[in-house]
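Protein Record: Sequence and Backbone Structure Tokens
======================================================
Scope: a single protein chain, as residues and as a discrete description of its fold.
Tokens: labelled as protein backbone structure tokens, with as many entries as the chain has residues.
Position: the record begins directly beneath this header, with no further notes in between.
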Amino acid sequence: MIQNRLHCLFLLVILLLIHPVIMADDWKDLHNDLDKDLDKDFLEYVDKAKIDEATKKKHTELTERLCKIHEQGAKSNKVFEIMRYYDQFDPEPDIKLDLVLTKLWFDALKGWYISSKMLSDNLKLSLNDASWNFADELSNSYSIFYCDGLLKKLEKKYFNILNFRLLDKHDLITKYVSWLKKLEDTNKDLINAYNIDFSKDSGAVVYAYSNVLPNIFPDVWLNSLMEYADFQKKFNKTQKKLEQLITFYNNKKNSDPKALEYLRKLKNIRMSEHRKQDDTLRYYLFSRPVVYYTNYRYSQYSEATSLVWFDDKDAMHNAAIQLSKLTPFIPYLDEDTVKYVMKTQRIFKDKFGEKEYTDIVTESKLLPNNWANVFKKLTPP
């Protein structure tokens, strides 16, 4: 039985490894359209535009503020820290909506978007799931030259997105990837071992996973999910802000129709890309480790039922409780992983009977669980 189950697991892992990643060109198109309407030279456009001095002053202040954020982002190599820098750009709608203000909003949210792409790229690349890098694709077309012109005296190049590839060794995602890679390597070792000799019992599987999956969820996993919850929260906040801006400026008679159109496109592009980005992040932060965790608990159960004279009821009970603690993850998993978890849980239910298994599920909910607060902050896909 353990042989068939492991074969199913490894087929599932292979399916997960070829999970598709799609990158749209909508951001590039909007970037090019804005540059074209601004005659490409942003600072020169601001100087020559027929706008009042108070508005020009506001534009300069906002540009300086955004360039400072670009500088902070370029210096950092902690991806969530970079996102938080861009969250700081939040001008109040107290000036006329024009192409300049729309361009600044676009650049701020573009920086946030690129850093979020770096997040998933570092996950994929660190686990050898991709041979390309998003930064390489965008390093030329996504440079922000007006910061060089505005703050030339500092003799620094702002917003060098290539920095985002090199995450700090203390970055939470770097730590998480290191832990997940241990799971990956453990799985590869098991595949190699069982391809050679499937006569080994499930004890070898339990021993292998126990070194990287203790009886409690690792803090490195919890910390990454807390950052992911913040990532969702920040996206919803900025998206809501865009919606408020569109409503506000749509009701003002002096708003630039072209700028308003671009603002609407920006909101729609962000939502479309976020859905794909969120799908990728949930795959790495939820589905992938859950597959291994499920197999680990099933192997514990299988080992407890493989004794010659009797089943180890306590070990089986503990394995069932630990697997039940995965229930909060269900809404965030991909379809194949959900089926795998549910199928494994049904094996426990059939073994214990419906009444006893219901008690096990209830008991698992009563155990100390610091994951509950994290899931309260998350929005299911």
About this structure: Residues 9-24 have pLDDT under 50 and may be disordered.
